Amino acid sequence: MPNAPSTSRTIPVGRWPGRLPWILLGSIAGCSALYDLRDRQCTADADCQGQVSGWYCSSSGFCVMPPTGGAGGAEAGGGAEAGGGAEAGAGGDETGSGGGATGGGDGGDGGKPSCRTRADCTERYHSDYFVCSDGDCVGITNAVCPLVLMSRNLAFKDPVIFGVYADTDTFGDNPQIRAYDLALGEVTTAITGLPYGPGGQLRPFVAVLCDSVNAGWTPGNSDHLAPSLEHLVRNLRVPGIIAGLTRPDLRAAFAYVDAMTDASKPFFLNPLAGDEDLETVDHSRLLWHMLGSVDDLKPALVQLIEAARSRIWPEPTERIRLAVVYADVATMKEMGSYVLGRVDCETTYECRGIEVAYELTGSDADYTSDRATLSQFRPDLVVALTGGEFVTQGFLQTLEGVEADRPAFYLLGHYLAYRSEVTDAVSTIAGLNQRIAGINFAGAEDPTLRDEFAGRYASRYSDSPGAAAEALAQDNFYDAAYYMMYAIAASGQSEGIEGDEVKDGFLRLLDLDAEGSRRFDVGPFDVESGTDRLLSSGNIRLDGTLGPPDWDTFSGARQGRASVWCIRNDGAAAPPVAFEYDQMRYDPTGNGFPVEQGLEVCGIDGF
Q1: For residues 592 and 585, what is the distance between their CA atoms, to the nearest angstrom?
Q2: In 242-367, which ranges are continuous DSSP H helix?
Q3: pTM confidence score
């Protein structure tokens, strides 16, 4: 998956939420239950017979309905004789490996619409996994959008369905999806749903997960995203999409939807970072970003390089060899170019830039020559702006094997800020943690909400190895789910919610001046009171695990600061090797990194 940077945070060992005890969401048997991401739903077809005759157990271990007309609905949805329901089958392939029926719609009777309401489809297929779209029954899931979170809410007459992009192949083990799942479960438990549905019916939330990566993936080419975008926008008419995509893919996806002239456009919430390039494609102000711009990290990284140079080599006798290793993706290439263009490569540093294949687009790449180039250069200071390939492809290990008067010092980019490959390397190479620091987006000044979320996450998925550690990198995804649901609630619409209305609702969450009864937090405790205020037309301040809702309403990016992380390696602690975030915070007003800050907690002296 294009698992681009998330803000990773730490939680004090043994700390639990400081509020009322949270009753964890339990597993509920049956295919209409909230998916317990820790378990398979079934092991045999007999486990699925509680729904309707014919349901079977998929290879992924979830109960699914047999295909209804196959890809395109050849027998029913696409049949010219039965009613020309081409649109009905457009999204249907076979089954949703994690969540129910897909396939084409019923062809109808002599060209007449096969449905007028979603209830018509539910009755026809004895399944909640259909919607009525332009008179045709369309599967909620399909081959490119195969999974549903909070699927039990599909039993309601008119749930609010929004889209999410993630790596669905890692459904049960994907920590981002777990963060979304936790947020949806908390909101459902707190209020069930929004109260303004047709006839006073509650409208609970459901998330349809679409695959962010497939076999034909070419970053920045919308072709592989078109089927899922068509399904979300035209068939399901989602009001919003949490678009966890690489920057090129996000740009392509947004431009693809923006070009639709015959469909209402959803609100896009990017759980990752924004930048100027993404701003240029957003003419309608429907694309917002949970993190700040990567441009905010660039000057902080240069300042960190200068800090390392002046404090590790205060009186160098010769130029310091600086290697900047960057992956061949736009974000990293831009950061690499920025660094090489702003450090003194004439007199202070002997600079070498090395471009390498990114792990997600260069899975078959041969890194032999790149490793040789780096080791022959014998750098004193290494800036690694890559994904996991800097470790998994042996660049770090190769440098550690090179004989030198002084081993290299490493400054890592935000793509590496939460990777287990880094902590694994630190645990096997003595003293390495004393020579590694990295850059990332700063967390909240007050970590209370972050710590409470991490505690709930770790408890919910306690049977997953490393759940407590993986929770640290998911706060921006968790916040994204809450901001999406609150924004939809703030739209004030009973049905037919569109992206512009969700955008207006999002803006109602950003009242930084709000205090007292108008200030609310993400998490289960404020859901009822927060949505009540929104439904009564009031604005609120919605604080997240990342801090107050401080957005630049022009660029759509969160206004944040850069910070420096390091890695603690303490055999007496649990876990013995762990990321320590926000050890130094960058001051963009000109002070850089204040001298009173330091990285001593990780054994790095002189900072």
Answers
A1: 8
A2: 247-258, 276-281, 297-312, 330-342
A3: 0.80
